[in-house]
């Protein structure tokens, strides 16, 4: 009885001692994280723009859209975005499992593509490189591998056929607009708000490879781009101006274009006028 009682008390003492050690280490770790957090900025964070994110960090819940659709992601992955990194720091002292970021103005479909990019470096449909032709194309599960060149840029193909169809995979319904927009344009604007410059470039390149887009969708998307990008960020705006100028015969015959221009209330059409004047000047100088 004495030995069994002594062994039992020894086990209890040892167990209490282990808990104490773990508690001490946890407190020291938390203190180091607090100190690092106080001195950390988005520009100096090692999680942003660095190596592949670690997948053993805390899980953060993101509520997206008016319906509060829930996503879950690792904190290190989200921290590749300066905006999301700041939001994660605000949730640092929340209990595990209760860290939550709210994005009521974003679309769940768009944020799903953002998460896919943060984890994989791309989003569906992926960019594919044809090394023999040295051309880029979009992944298409329904096409054979030998037909990758079917997704060519609308800026390089002449003719109006590319505007007569409707490309479902290239568009999404935006409740705030009440109609369909080019998906890559919405992703570009979301990436701009989240500080993901590489995702902006990726979305812009993918949009240049889309085909089968009707004039009305292009003009709605151009309006959305102007409403959701600052004047200092001219890449997406310039893309639409170049598209309209190079396909000017199609847009000139479009009643939608006329109606949109009469409606006005956007910087788009003045920029288009300036761009076309510059284009004419270039042609005159060459002549």
TrEMBL record:
Domain BTB: 58-122
Biased segments, Polar residues type: 37-47
Lineage: superkingdom: Eukaryota
UniProt cross-references to InterPro entries, sorted A to Z: BTB/POZ_dom, SKP1/BTB/POZ_sf
Basic and acidic residues bias: start-end ranges: 23-35
Region of interest: Disordered: 1-52
PANTHER family reported for this sequence: BTB DOMAIN-CONTAINING PROTEIN, BTB DOMAIN-CONTAINING PROTEIN-RELATED
Protein name: BTB domain-containing protein
């Amino acid at each position: 009885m004495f030995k069994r009682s002594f062994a039992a008390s020894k086990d209890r003492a040892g167990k209490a001692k282990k808990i104490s050690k773990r508690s001490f280490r946890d407190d020291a770790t938390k203190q180091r994280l607090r100190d690092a957090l106080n001195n950390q900025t988005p520009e100096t964070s090692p999680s942003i723009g660095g190596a592949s994110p670690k997948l053993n960090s805390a899980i953060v819940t993101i509520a997206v859209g008016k319906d509060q659709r829930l996503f879950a992601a690792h904190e290190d992955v989200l921290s590749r975005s300066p905006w999301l990194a700041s939001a994660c720091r605000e949730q640092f002292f929340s209990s595990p499992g209760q860290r939550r970021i709210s994005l009521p103005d974003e679309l769940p479909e768009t944020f799903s593509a953002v998460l896919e990019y943060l984890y994989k470096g791309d989003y569906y449909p992926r960019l594919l490189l044809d090394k023999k032709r040295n051309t880029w194309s979009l992944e298409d599960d329904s096409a054979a591998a030998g037909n990758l060149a079917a997704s060519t840029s609308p800026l390089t193909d002449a003719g109006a056929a590319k505007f007569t169809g409707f490309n479902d995979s290239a568009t999404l319904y935006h409740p705030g607009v009440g109609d369909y927009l080019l998906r890559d344009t919405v992703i570009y604007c979301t990436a701009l708000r989240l500080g993901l410059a590489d995702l902006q470039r990726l979305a812009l390149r993918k949009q240049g490879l889309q085909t089968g887009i009707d004039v009305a969708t292009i003009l709605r998307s151009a309006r959305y781009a102007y409403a959701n990008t600052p004047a200092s960020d001219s890449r997406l705006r310039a893309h639409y101006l170049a598209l309209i100028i190079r396909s000017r015969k199609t847009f000139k015959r479009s009643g939608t274009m006329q109606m949109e221009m009469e409606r006005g209330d956007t910087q788009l059409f003045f920029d288009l006028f300036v761009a076309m004047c510059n284009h004419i000047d270039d042609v005159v100088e060459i002549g």
